[in-house]
Amino acid sequence: METGIRVLLLSAAFVLGGCASIHHLFHRHDDAAAQAPNDAAAEEGNDHPPRVIDPDVERRKITVPKIRSHNVEFGVQYGALSIENFGTNPVYGFTAAYHVSEDFFFQGAFGRSQAGRTSFETLSNINLLTPSERYFTYYDLALGYNFLPGEVFLGRKTAMTSAFYLLGGIGSTDFAGDSKFTVSFGGGYRVLPTDWMAVHIGVEDRVFQSSLLGVDKLTNNLEATIGASVFF
Amino acid sequence: MQRLPSARCLLLVLLLAIPALCDAREYLQVFVVAPYLELHTGPGRGYPVFNVVDRDGSVDVLVRYTEWFKVRTERGVVGWVAEGDMLHTVLADGSAFTFNRGDRAGFTSHRFEMGMFAGTYGGATLISAYTSLSFNSQLAAEVSVGQFLGNASNGVVADVGLTHVFMPEWRWSPFVMLGTGLVHTEPKATLVEPVNRTEQTAYVGGGVRYYLTRRFFLRAEYKSHVVFTKLNSNEVVDEWKLGFAFFF
To answer: What is the pTM of this model?
Structure first.
């Protein structure tokens, strides 16, 4: 009985030992399989570091969106121009402006009107000017100054920015067959219903030297306009 | 049944219009690194502050008007931020948000200039405007046009040439000019047999520019034009002018 138990224990120890040895063999084989590339990598490691992840990713080109500017303004205007001695007549024109700062802007303006008849012409029934000479065409380059900026409220939810502005400039007036150096000054009021659009009301005086009616004098030509402009 | 095609057309038009109605434009996103970013109701120093964005918050930059940026916060609040405050924001990668500013550095080195002048051209009153494209801080190509109004004649001048600024970093920076152009002269009708004429010119000149503030500077210049007339001798015309200019 005692011998049988010893044989059983010895058999069990043998089998377990055999299994352990076989497992060890398998284990060693796995280790060897894993070791092989490591050895190879270690051999390569002398030249290059081992590669864990192959970075096969194309770098995306990131474009930063551009910021739009609304500093350039183009506009049209229509109104009335009082040409000294020649009555008040409709005038239309175009403007282009560049807003340099919140306070200052440069503006170029072009306009055209057609003069009426002087009282002398009406009374004596003669014409001092030909029809083409009656066109009053002007342009000017002006510096503008914004002042009294504010907001206009329409109801509870709508607020529009606004500002008064002063203008002073120089230019030329083509009238009665001659071009005259002209100084212009005036002002206006601008309301912006949106960021890109404005509505204007303006008054300007265009002053130039004229000897058309026999006396050399400064003539004042007052202009009142209403206009709309778009910002780019 | 007659109304069905028109309803389809309307639907089609609406479908086509949807992309146009939706604002698909991408805006630049910047992040606040200052304690807070103030939003004003309008693009001006007088407009009140009505909202703030905290540090690390982001805003989309919608549009720029002079020294102001219109932004939209993450909560959809839209307001205006001053240029100086936008310097305290960074881009998504952490780099500083930089933009073209109207300051002394911009005066030294910029891309474009525009300006207007008053002066004299051969004794006649001159109104003139110019624009220039800078290749670097010293050399620029320049185009100018002007109208002169005199007792004897009126006319227009147009020039194209190069300008070299000697010390662009100086507040008073001198420059020299060289170029060519055209002059169109219209003698007054009171003279005998007036004939309009267009002649080529060449000019050499110089001047000085003075930085005022922001984007503004004064510019005074002299040009000596040689007018290539059809007569035996060429004509020399002096041009003096003074004006305002700005860079951008």
So the answer is: 0.78
